[in-house]
Write a structure and sequence with these properties.
With 767 residues, the protein is α+β, with helices and mostly antiparallel strands. It has helices at 7-20, 22-43, 62-72, 93-106, 145-153, 182-197, 209-243, 247-269, 281-306, 310-337, 345-365, 368-375, 379-383, 390-404, 406-424, 442-453, 476-493, 501-512, 523-535, 540-543, 564-581, 594-628, 631-655, 661-690, 695-722, 730-766; strands at 79-85, 112-116, 122-125, 132-135, 169-176, 203-208, 458-466, 496-499, 552-559, 587-592. A hairpin with a 6-residue loop joins strand 3 (122-125) and strand 4. The protein is elongated.
Length: 767
């Protein structure tokens, strides 16, 4: 038969032991109860976490450059912005006094390094030998508001940063301490919100890592229970319609529920937290684990309905269902383990622990499930598995239609593949930082407000190294070259909050002269300015911009969250400008920062998931060849399961669904799940042919024996993955949506295309 020699003695021994030893079942139940109790105890220590930096890639030197950059200067994502609206205009004394009071109140909070507000903003000028600082806004004296507003809106570095063009709001910039832990971030975010609640501003918008992190974690905790609850509800409904028995619901659900408990218990034991990826883990285990239970359950009661003796059913299940489900376990695990090709730790962990959960579900299906069935088998379940019903008549008619229309099916398949390939060519790889969140979430609305009214929130960081050993940042040639790059960045990216050594020099110079011409100082005028900066080079504020030795500096700015496609294009334009306008032997420019790393992560993820998919394809192809000793069977197995992936690729292209970290995961995982039905169908067909049945009769029996479990598991998969589509995280929504499409197409391919391909092979053999 098709069972591998290695497994056959083990299966026979196992069931001989089970059949002859009632104590075995009691031992299984006792072990399951004890370990489940232990895992339930451990689950209370399981925590939710969202580490934004865990999604940074470590494929090459990019992460190393970024880590060195922020050690030298500061963390570019440790900040918060607060926008305060006033529809009557911001140059209003009552409004500005309230802003000033808010600024002072915020300054009293822990974990804040510095607050820059329009009410404490000062401009530096060199009117004489001693530098002087002047307030940008004289909030107490209304007679100076007109003069202040003119100066502010003639200062490009202030407009789009602290002040919008419409003058209906203003922004407070909060620099938090670097590397805040979760508890500290949560405390600071909560305290800021409490302070804001004391002031009656028309509208308040705030963004920053400390706020976004808490929103993500709150949503993770909410969706963790929601996904699991909805999956349970949907699966219970399908089980009820299938088995019409409370027992037919309780037993399968208990198996997968215990599998989830064990997996979460193991995660807690090894100190793993739940993040944006592993929050989907219970749903994945529930869905994938239920497949084995349903196939075992269905076969058991079908044999009872036929009158097969109980003691003969278990060996028969191993022979006809056990080995195929073992193969589906392997293919599913291969799909999840292909995520190990990713360099992103949360994605690797998701692959590892989901694989662990699926393996646990398989083990329980063939240990705990037989024990439960041994002690109690309700007769009502037997009656719903007779073959004299409308479902089997429909399946018989469908099978005959397939064989009469083989050419039509092949033609439709060919046309679908061509259209899918056209769609795939339209797929774009893109990433928007907060795209994951629904537009209903406040922080997403606030993020959009800053993009619309200010320069944006996305950090743009550029490291500058002085290569000429005889020069440093404060040399006129160097500072002039940096100014050219500054001006290009302002025009190319529409950047705000731009700070660099040249921007400081230019601001001081323009504040020191009485002219409207925005120009960089000449070499003669520059001497006094640079002297002041060099004398203060050891001050903390200046060290965060230029190293003490003057060999390394930075350009830091905020831009709109335009997406990785546009950002990459702007970056290319910037690098081209630098190459053509800056002496490469003088300065070296490197784009870095948290946002840049997330964009790079997206590119790496697509490449990694491609490698993972190829790995899954090769492993499953080798396994298929080893089992069937035929490359034609390999093609028959692969084609119906690759077609769904081509189709979802085509749908993504035509629908404009962009390829990113989450959507690229779908292909490897969906391929591993989609192969399950194909394995059960082919395995059952070989069994029937091995019994000496005719080809047509073998196909009919295969349809009857595997059809109902395949359809039921398909509905279970759909129900489980559809629950992900209510997520506030866009990546989770698309993950569920695309896998649902894959499951539907996969079962259609197995029902219509697979019999045609198999008939082409076995029909020739019979002739």
């Amino acid at each position: 038969m098709f069972i591998l020699p290695f497994f056959k003695p083990y299966f026979v021994f196992s069931f001989a032991f089970i059949k002859n030893h009632k104590s075995y079942y009691r031992a299984v139940l006792l072990i399951v109860v004890l370990f489940s109790a232990f895992c339930l105890y451990r689950i209370q220590f399981l925590k939710f976490d969202y580490d934004f930096e865990a999604f940074f890639p470590n494929e090459d030197h990019e992460l190393e450059v970024y880590n060195n950059y922020r050690k030298t200067f500061e963390h570019d994502n440790e900040f918060a912005l607060i926008a305060l609206e006033n529809s009557k205009g911001i140059f209003n004394k009552t409004f500005l006094l309230r802003v000033d009071s808010l600024t002072k109140a915020l300054n009293q909070l822990n974990y804040i390094q510095k607050i820059t507000s329009p009410t404490n903003l000062k401009t530096l000028s060199l009117g004489g030998l001693i530098p002087t600082q002047t307030r940008a806004l004289h909030i107490e004296d209304e007679t100076l508001y007109k003069e202040d507003s003119i100066k502010i809106y003639q200062s490009p570095h202030l407009v789009g940063s602290f002040f919008p063009l419409n003058a209906k709001s203003l922004t407070i910039y909060i620099k938090t301490k670097d590397d805040l832990k979760k508890r500290q971030s949560d405390s600071l975010a909560s305290n800021i919100e409490k302070v804001l609640s004391r002031f009656n501003f028309e509208n308040i918008h705030y963004v920053g890592r400390i706020f976004a992190q808490q929103v993500y974690l709150d949503n993770l905790q909410k969706e963790f229970g929601l996904f699991l609850g909805l999956s349970f509800l949907v699966v219970i409904l399908f089980l009820w319609f299938s088995f019409r028995s409370i027992y037919g619901i309780i037993v399968p659900v208990s198996i997968v529920l215990i599998s989830i408990i064990w997996t979460l218990g193991v995660m807690s034991l090894v100190g793993k937290t739940l993040d944006i990826m592993t929050v989907m883990l219970p749903t994945m285990i529930f869905i994938a684990g239920m497949s084995d239970v349903v196939h075992f359950f269905s076969k058991y009661f079908e044999e009872l309905a036929k009158g097969t003796k109980k003691e003969k059913i278990y060996p028969l299940i191993l022979k006809e269902v056990g080995f195929p489900t073992l193969l589906t376990l392997i293919t599913t695990v291969v799909g999840f383990l292909s995520l190990l090709f990713s360099s992103i730790r949360p994605i690797r962990d998701f692959g590892i622990y989901t694989s662990v959960g699926v393996i646990i579900a398989f083990i329980l299906s063939y240990s705990l499930l037989p024990a439960l069935l041994y002690f109690f088998t309700p007769k009502k379940l037997v009656s719903v598995h007779t073959h004299n019903n409308r479902t089997y008549r429909t399946m018989r008619s469908g099978l005959f239609w397939i064989f009469r229309n083989q050419k039509t099916i092949l033609l439709i398949t060919a046309v679908t593949i061509i259209l899918s390939i056209i769609g795939i060519s339209k797929i774009k790889v893109n990433n928007i930082l907060l795209e994951d969140l629904s537009d209903k979430v406040k922080i997403k609305q606030d993020f959009n407000f800053f993009d619309a009214n200010y320069s944006g929130v996305r950090p743009l960081e550029i490291k500058i190294s002085v290569l000429n050993p005889k020069k440093n940042v404060w040399d006129y040639e160097v500072i002039n070259a940096i100014d050219k790059v500054d001006e290009f960045i302002k025009k190319e990216y529409h950047a705000g909050f731009l700070i660099s050594p040249s921007s400081l020099v230019k601001t001081v110079y323009l504040n020191s002269i009485d002219t409207q011409i925005k120009k960089f100082p000449s070499a003669e005028d520059y001497g006094l300015i640079t002297k002041q900066f060099q004398e203060n080079r050891k001050r903390n504020d200046l060290k965060k911009l230029v190293t003490v030795n003057g060999k390394t500096t930075r350009i830091s700015a905020k831009i709109s969250d335009m997406g990785s496609i546009k950002a990459t294009l702007h970056n290319a334009h910037l690098l081209a400008f630098i190459e053509n306008n800056v002496d490469s032997s003088l300065l070296k420019f490197e784009i870095t920062g948290a946002a840049h790393l997330v964009d790079k992560n997206n590119e790496y993820m697509v490449n990694n998931m491609t490698q993972g998919f190829i790995f899954s394809l090769i492993v499953i192809a080798i396994l298929t060849f080893f089992l069937h000793r035929s490359w034609r069977m390999v093609l028959v197995f692969i084609i119906p399961n690759v077609i769904p992936l081509l189709i979802i690729g085509g749908i993504m292209g035509f629908a404009g669904i962009e390829l990113k970290a989450a959507t690229s995961l779908v292909f490897s995982i969906a391929f591993g799940i989609a192969t399950d039905d194909t394995i059960h169908f082919i395995s059952r067909l070989k069994i029937e042919l091995g019994y000496g049945k005719s080809l047509m009769y073998a196909f009919k029996r295969t349809y009857f024996e595997t059809g109902k479990p395949i359809i039921l598991t398909t509905f279970i998969l759909l129900g489980g993955f559809m629950s992900l589509m209510i997520s506030d995280f866009q990546s989770t929504f698309y993950f569920g949506f695309l896998i649902c499409i894959t499951v539907i197409i996969a079962v259609v391919a197995d029902i219509f295309l697979l019999p045609v391909l198999l008939f082409m092979i076995y029909g020739k053999k019979k002739k």
